[in-house]
Design goal:
Helix content: over 70%
CATH topology of the largest domain: MetI-like fold
Number of domains: 2
Number of helices: 16
Mean pLDDT: 84
CATH architecture of the largest domain: Orthogonal Bundle
Distance between the termini: 34 Å
Order of helices and strands: HHHHHHHHHHHHHHHH
CATH class of the largest domain: Mainly Alpha
CATH superfamily of the largest domain: MetI-like
Largest sheet: none
Radius of gyration: 25 Å
Structural class: mainly alpha
Number of strands: 0
Length: 294
């Protein structure tokens, strides 16, 4: 018993050491507080300007507290005919949700196959996935992809924005690495011994273990899809936009209406805040779990 206690104390931390290691000093706390203020101030100022008038927005010094014109600005935003902002919000939600669900499903399936199944050519296929991450296919493939959309007659339709992003090479690679760490081979073999099929192993064994990683990937894909601008600008019509192209049209229609631009930008950011608030615990848990395993 004495040897065991001594061994644990020698191999672990001494009493009181843990508090000293993790206790941040005043300078560290001050630097972190300053970093938070610097990072959050632009977002805060954007919402402040969304509640002001144009006359108040160009005051010197600029206002730092919210005003009382938010409802009026939102009404003007939705009434702007050239921007189709409400249509852009709905279209972006449809595109982002569809692409995120597809990427999560395909990435977890491919990650399970690459990490836990043995088949001929698996390493070559995974290498091809890595190659797609190294080449900027979106920039290099705009012209042939647009020609394909024209040939299919999909220009101006949401499926032209959805289809090219249903598979994500980074998502496949990320879920492959996460599956290797989160799902032990012994667990898969035990399910096989119990008579579970490959689909049952994926649904009952793999997916529950991948939830933290799926949450992180879902947030990254949703944000990337929601903020996509170049391809929707090329392939969609002005009367059927996504939210980012709506803001671009708003900028053209109201070049000097700074409050309108701030209001549109603030409205486009709100869904991202909602996603993070709803799934924040799973996202942070997935990031922390990955950091601990790394």
């Amino acid at each position: 018993m004495t040897a065991t206690r001594t061994g644990r104390r020698a191999g672990g931390t001494l009493p009181g050491t843990r508090d000293r290691v993790w206790d941040a000093g005043p300078l560290t706390k001050a630097v972190l507080a300053l970093a938070i203020v610097i990072s959050a101030f632009p977002i805060y100022y954007m919402f402040v300007m969304a509640t002001r008038t144009n006359e108040e927005a160009i005051d010197v010094p600029p206002p730092l507290l919210p005003g009382g014109h938010l409802g009026e600005n939102v009404a003007r935003l939705l009434a702007t005919e050239d921007a189709y902002f409400l249509t852009g919000l709905v279209n972006s939600a449809v595109v982002a949700v569809t692409v995120t669900l597809s990427v999560i499903l395909i990435s977890t399936l491919a990650g399970f196959a690459f990490a836990k199944l043995r088949f001929r050519g698996g390493r070559v296929l995974l290498g091809l996935v890595l190659v797609t991450m190294m080449v900027p296919l979106q920039q290099m493939g705009v012209v042939p992809l647009y020609e394909l959309m024209v040939a299919l007659g999909w220009t101006g339709q949401l499926k032209a924005v959805i289809l090219p992003f249903l598979v994500n090479g980074f998502g496949v690679f990320m879920m492959t690495q996460y599956t290797r760490q989160a799902v032990p081979d012994e667990l898969v073999e035990a399910a096989r011994v119990d008579g579970a099929s490959t689909a049952r192993v994926y649904a009952s064994v793999v997916l529950p273990a991948l939830r933290p990683g799926m949450a992180v990937l879902a947030l990254l894909v949703f944000m990337q899809t929601w903020n996509e601008f170049m391809w929707p600008l090329i392939v969609l019509n002005p009367d059927n936009p996504v939210v980012q192209t709506s803001i671009a049209a708003l900028n053209q229609a109201h070049g000097t209406d700074y409050v309108m631009l701030f209001t549109g930008t603030a409205a486009s950011v709100l869904p991202l805040f909602v996603v993070f608030i709803v799934f924040g615990r799973q996202i942070v848990g997935g990031l922390m779990e990955g950091a601990v395993k790394a």
